[in-house]
């Protein structure tokens, strides 16, 4: 059996740390990301969480194959650097993470985009494992994507291939995105822009949303089921946006399966049927129907994926 790997998933809200062996997360924990304050300040907390997990499992660093990090942003997986990252962990491109890993743990280091890592996890162990070509769409703080074509994980010459689905333009008259573009999928329907989206709704003032201490998609979907007009409109707009993004990904990468994952998928019963019907109605796939599936590992796919990439 393969040796264990330390896997880190750099989420915008939580950083997940796991000890992974094969298709099993032996032990895991999470810490607050505090991503607006940068990554450098979080490294000592990541170190402490790793050490605590190793102690918990009774595993020494000598038994570990390496450390892998799944990170948002544009990732040079060859030079092992974060090239560009959008707001979250803004100081990360200036940090020599491989050096930090060697100095802290004396372990080999690998890094990959978080959506690519999640897709690799689903392709190796989850819903996409029986397919040659697959696409993932992650619905969370932002909208992530990644693609495997003919059993090859797409990276591209400049490491942007497949991962910018959330920054595809679906409303060229839309508002500015924090990537510099206008009308991106993320500006139209994602958690980081949800409060602004809600406040611009014509029924916001009469909605319980106006008095909520925080607005997230769990609240939107719950209020929509209760018939709240603002929440119903936002839910309808959001699933239309995600469906349009899904079709863009299908037309771009010709997958056999689309895997849907991320924190917003806690409301999957209201999301998956809509997206599936929209794709079956509007996607140009004369060869047949694409498989639309909720991810098998909504919380751990990126940990499993980056661990596999480290070990191979």
UniProtKB/TrEMBL annotation:
The similarity comment for this entry is: Belongs to the ROK (NagC/XylR) family.
Highest taxon above the source species: Bacteria
Protein name stated in the entry: ROK family protein
Q: Name one Pfam family in it.
A: ROK
């Amino acid at each position: 059996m393969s040796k264990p790997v330390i896997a880190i998933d750099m989420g915008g809200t939580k950083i997940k740390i796991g000890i992974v062996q094969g298709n099993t997360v032996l032990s895991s924990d999470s810490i607050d990301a505090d991503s607006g304050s940068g990554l450098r300040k979080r490294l000592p907390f990541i170190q402490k969480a790793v050490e605590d997990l190793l102690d918990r499992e009774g595993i020494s660093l000598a038994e570990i194959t390496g450390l892998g990090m799944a990170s948002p942003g544009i990732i040079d997986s060859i030079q092992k650097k974060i090239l560009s990252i959008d707001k979250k962990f803004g100081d990360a491109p200036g940090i020599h993470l491989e050096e930090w890993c060697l100095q802290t743990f004396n372990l080999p280091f690998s890094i990959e985009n978080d959506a690519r890592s999640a897709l690799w996890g689903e392709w190796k162990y989850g819903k996409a494992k029986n397919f040659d070509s697959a696409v993932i769409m992650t619905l969370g703080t932002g909208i992530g994507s990644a693609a495997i074509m003919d059993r090859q994980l797409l990276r591209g010459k400049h490491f942007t291939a497949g991962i910018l689905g959330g920054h595809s333009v679906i409303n060229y008259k839309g508002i500015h995105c924090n990537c510099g573009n206008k009308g991106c999928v993320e500006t139209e329907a994602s958690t980081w822009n949800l409060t602004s989206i809600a406040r611009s709704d014509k029924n916001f003032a009469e909605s319980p949303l106006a008095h909520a201490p925080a607005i997230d998609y769990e609240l939107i979907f719950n209020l929509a089921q209760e018939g709240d007009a603002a929440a119903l409109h936002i839910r309808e707009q959001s699933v239309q946006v995600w469906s349009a993004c899904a079709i863009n990904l299908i037309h771009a990468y010709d997958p056999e399966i689309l895997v849907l994952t991320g924190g917003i998928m806690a409301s999957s019963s209201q999301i998956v049927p809509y997206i599936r019907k929209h794709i079956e109605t509007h996607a140009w796939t004369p060869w047949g129907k694409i498989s639309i599936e909720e991810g098998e590992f909504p919380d751990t796919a990126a940990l499993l994926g980056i661990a596999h990439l480290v070990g191979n």
